[in-house]
């Protein structure tokens, strides 16, 4: 009898009481979330309640408390020691009630550490309400500008490229932000030798930080009094004057965060740090948030690899903005509404190839490489007869993996597809569409008319001289760098083309699917069983895709996935 080892308790309002369903067995299963890779435990069958058990549950169903979750528990007794084996609840709305036969069939629902998070998974909150706002400066230093006049300048006709005045100094970061040509005149008598004579006025700017200490980021050169680097200036075709009729040409460039005409720097205010966003969205669940990847209450348990090395340089402080606070940074009023759910937030964070798990009260958010499985149970050899059979999960083997932002972006931020060279399903494309976030700050600011006003911008910031500063034009949040840092793990195959180079990846998903294996598991081992651990079969150490334990037979049935051969 299963009820010699298992006891079922239900609380209909006056504390847990024993119940005795007429089922002669039941099973508990463990299933892995396909996307986020955590495991949960589920009750697989409907339980049949009759007589007095039915009457007590019917009385609750016919009361005003019908919609409340009814606490449900299964205890297991093993060698005289009793412990809780399954926590759940009954949803009386999902029961099959038969008043003629006085019977109720109902399947218990899972109540575990993930329940609160999943209950709030799609609930949206305005992250701009009740949170501390952060300001990110687009520059570490000040913007220095000089206007250089040159003329008359002679150029061959026709003009293949507009002339510019020489910079104030060579190789010291000076960047053209405006180029004005006045009085274009043809000189010479022989049409074959015509030259163009122009007066040229070129405005050069650069970012400058005073002092001897090298600022963070790349591109800095030592100059008199400190350090300087070039600006990311993008040509603005629409604002430029390229009409020959008025005998004036003007090339205008856009520098994100800086108004060339007024010499104003536009700080990106009204942002919310990632740690505050996560805390707001899980506040009902009372989780302790830990992430070594995102520097949120880190406990220094991260592996030593490129993903976490990149995170130390790039993910120390992530700030989330409603998009218009970036594209219209000089607006009189900031955005006031930015609704976000946990589901959308984790979809945004998936750009870093993350997984998460909850253990007790700790919600841990880490890179895929953090959750490396350990070796666990060895299946008895006498249970492995005729189980060394397998096939490949071919629908997990795409030819291409494509990644896209919500909005258009520059080539560096768009990156390249990851391509696989063999063993793929021909024409199969795995799409990663991040349809509520963008990161190419400079492109967003330079092209506001083509940018959707909805959605978010994710920004990487560095603390410098007591302020937050945009990290290297946010380039570490481009697909070019995201792929290199975070997407070398958990790929469909061991090798492929990443960033246009043949690459041997750090890890690959298991796609070698073994036939079902069954073996007995005593209650002591059942209590120690964790599906996160690998299991040893005749095909080697396999990852548990699903597992199910039958209370009557005391057999554990597992579906195992094994590694592909690494050939790179």
What does this structure look like?
The protein has 568 residues and is mainly β. It has ten helices and 42 strands. β26 and β27 (362-367) form a beta hairpin. The longest helix is centred in the N-terminal third of the chain and has 11 residues, at 51-61. It is elongated, with a radius of gyration of 32 Å. The relative contact order is 0.12.
Tell the overall outline.
elongated
Number of helical segments with 4 or more residues: 10
Helix % is: 10-25%
Structural class: mainly beta
N-end to C-end Cα span: 54 Å
Radius of gyration: 32 Å
Strand content: 35-45%
Would you report the number of β strands? 42
Low-confidence stretches: none
The averaged pLDDT comes out at 91
Tell me about the biggest sheet?
9 strands, mixed
Task: Please sum up the structure shown.
The chain is mostly beta strands. It contains 10 helices and 42 strands. Strands 3, 4, 28, 29, 38, 39, 40, 41 and 42 form a 9-stranded mixed beta sheet that branches. Strands 13, 14, 15, 16, 17, 18 and 19 form a 7-stranded antiparallel beta sheet that branches. Strands 2-1-6-7-10 form a 5-stranded antiparallel beta sheet.
């Amino acid at each position: 009898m299963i009820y010699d080892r298992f006891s079922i308790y239900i609380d209909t309002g006056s504390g847990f009481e024993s119940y005795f369903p007429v089922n002669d067995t039941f099973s508990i299963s463990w299933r892995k979330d396909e996307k986020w890779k955590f495991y949960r435990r589920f009750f697989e069958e409907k339980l049949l309640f009759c007589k007095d058990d039915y009457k007590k549950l019917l009385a609750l169903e016919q009361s005003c408390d019908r919609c409340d979750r009814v606490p449900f528990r299964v205890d297991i007794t093993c060698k005289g020691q009793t412990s809780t084996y399954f926590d759940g609840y009954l949803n009386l709305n999902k029961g099959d009630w038969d008043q003629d036969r006085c019977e109720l069939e109902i399947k218990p629902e899972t109540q575990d550490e993930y329940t609160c998070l999943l209950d709030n998974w799609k609930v949206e909150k305005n992250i701009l309400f009740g949170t501390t706002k952060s300001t990110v400066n687009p520059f570490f230093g000040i913007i220095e500008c000089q206007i250089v006049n040159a003329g008359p300048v002679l150029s061959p006709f026709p003009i293949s490229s507009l002339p510019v005045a020489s910079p104030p100094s060579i190789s010291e970061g000076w960047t053209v932000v405006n180029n004005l040509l006045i009085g274009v005149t043809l000189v010479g008598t022989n049409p074959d030798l015509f030259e163009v004579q122009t007066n040229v006025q070129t405005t050069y700017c650069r970012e400058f930080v005073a002092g001897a200490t090298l600022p963070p980021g790349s591109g800095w050169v030592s100059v008199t009094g400190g350090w300087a680097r070039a600006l990311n200036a993008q040509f603005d075709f629409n604002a430029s004057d390229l009409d020959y009729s008025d005998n004036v040409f003007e090339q205008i460039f856009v520098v994100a965060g800086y108004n060339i005409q007024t010499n104003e720097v536009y700080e990106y205010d009204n942002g919310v740090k990632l740690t505050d966003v996560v805390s707001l969205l899980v506040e009902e669940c009372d989780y302790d948030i830990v992430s070594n990847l995102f520097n949120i209450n880190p406990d220094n348990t991260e592996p030593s690899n490129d993903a976490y090395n990149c995170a130390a340089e790039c993910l120390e402080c992530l700030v989330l903005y409603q998009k218009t606070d970036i594209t219209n940074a000089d607006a009189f009023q900031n955005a006031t509404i930015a609704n976000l759910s946990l589901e959308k937030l984790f979809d945004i964070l998936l750009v870093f190839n993350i997984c998460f798990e909850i253990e007790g009260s700790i919600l841990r958010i880490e890179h895929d490489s953090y959750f490396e499985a350990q070796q666990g149970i060895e299946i008895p050899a006498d249970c492995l007869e005729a189980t060394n059979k397998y096939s490949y999960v071919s629908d997990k083997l795409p030819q291409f993996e494509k990644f896209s932002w919500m909005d258009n972006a520059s080539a560096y931020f768009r990156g390249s597809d990851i391509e696989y060279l063999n063993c793929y399903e021909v024409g199969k494309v795995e799409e990663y569409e991040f349809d509520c976030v963008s990161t190419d700050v400079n492109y967003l600011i330079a092209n506001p008319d083509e940018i959707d006003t909805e959605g978010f911008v994710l920004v990487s910031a560095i603390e410098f001289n007591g302020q937050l500063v945009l990290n290297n034009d946010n380039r570490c949040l481009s697909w070019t760098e995201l792929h290199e840092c975070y997407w070398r793990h958990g790929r469909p195959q061991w090798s492929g083309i990443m960033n246009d180079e043949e690459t041997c990846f750090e890890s690959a998903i298991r796609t070698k699917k073994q036939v079902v294996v069954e073996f007995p598991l005593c209650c002591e081992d059942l209590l120690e069983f964790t599906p996160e651990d690998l299991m040893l079969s005749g095909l080697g150490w396999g990852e548990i895709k699903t597992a199910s334990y039958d209370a009557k037979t005391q057999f554990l049935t597992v579906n195992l996935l094994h590694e592909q051969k690494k050939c790179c």
